[in-house]
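Sequence, structure tokens reproduced for absentees:
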Amino acid sequence: MKPWIAVAACCLMAASLPAKPQMTSQINLPSLGAPAGSGELSPADERKIGEQSMEEIRQSPYYLHDPDIHEYLMRLGYRLVAAAPVTPYSFQFFPMKLGEINAFALPGGFIAVFTGTLVAAQDESELAGVMAHEIAHVTQRHIARMLENQKGNAAASLGSFLLAILAASAGGNSGGDAAAAIMMGGQAALISNQLKFSRSAEQEADRIGFQIMVRANFDPNGMTRFFQRLLQRTGPYEANASAYLSDHPLTVERIADMENRARELQRPFIRHDSFDFYLMQARALVLQSGSSAGRESAKIQFQTVLNKKATGVQAAVAHYGLSVVYAQDGDAAQAYAEAQKAVQMAGRNDVFLQKNLLQTRYALAADKKPVLKEISALANDNPLSVMLAKIYIEDLYEQGMHEEILKYLKGQSAISQDNADYFRYLARSSEALGRRSEAFRATGKMYALQGDWKMAAYQFKQAQRVSDGDFFTMSEVDADLREAEDHLKQDKSHN
């Protein structure tokens, strides 16, 4: 088993179809059981576990390093979080490059969405329903309770469950056989030892997820539609539904209950869509396979849409998808041509389309400085866009403009200093400029944010050893090292 799988497996609350909830028309509902925290696991502990898991997940081949889809999921996720119960967590939503239909939550507010889920959803409300369900698992601290209550083999069973999902998602007969073998052992123990808790948790996640959908002004029927299709295993994603569906005897009743709850509200819901949803769906379709054959399949789908004389949104999305295909294949000219067509057909000013247009133009341009200015202007017009900030920094890095990167990092507000990428960019450019103490300190801060205080302390000591920074820089290094050593002492005392 790969190390990152072992770490993540121990803290997974796998997504599943909602359990049958108690009928209610109330919006405010009590939390399940005794308050979490009565055991040893605090919100800070949860966050630490989540950070450590994410450190491994980000290094895995399944993590999708795509700023566009990541930004879209963060926007959608925080619209839902704003409608959720008050929580101490700072949520992070991220994509996993897997064609399976699935999602899961880690301790501390980290929520993964498989690209297969984004591709399979027919509208944004359906995707929002999956994410709202996972948010509810976090806000109600189901994972904390699960970890507090687990004894012995329970953790191993959860690890087996995640391994089964990922083995099946990886493709190939060996992956499927491995998944089946694991499920025969680990999942049987999980069901027998944790079934009562799992059903209760799913009941609460259903209720809270439904409330989140309503409060965020999404059609709660989207959750029902999506789960109903999975239950029937119909359509082109039939084979990918198995990871999300387990043979749960209450599935039909649970879906029926969601439908009844929506009717009880006695108010119409508009089927919510967004242009960005369809753009990111097309992007996910291209990126999730990671192979030329997969991109060719996506290309055929987009061309089929255009061959049917599609106009407006459909045509814009198809041209955008083709642009992503050509960009991945290294055909800069075709990527830019399709990006232009996408903008023309959209008839609207969309930041994802504009970013793609400038990015493909940048790849094609002999003189890149004029395009850099336009990218800078777009980033300034969208000051909270992490996607645009990262693209601008990467383009500056390619041009060797490290002083500009450091200046931009200090002035921008998209990538905050609680984001490890901030210090990764800072370290990279400081090293390129020969500012070694600053580079070591930034690297140490990056490790500290990831919860690796041992590596953080090592980097701070290296910064002290080099000692080529000014008085203020070296004073900060000293303070950072003291903080890291304090954390290491605390960790040692807890072991």
Remarks:
- Residues 1-38, 151-165, 172-197, 246-250 have pLDDT under 50 and may be disordered.
- Residues 285 and 348 are 23 Å apart (CA to CA).
- The chain has 22 helices and four strands.
- Residues 3-264 form one domain.
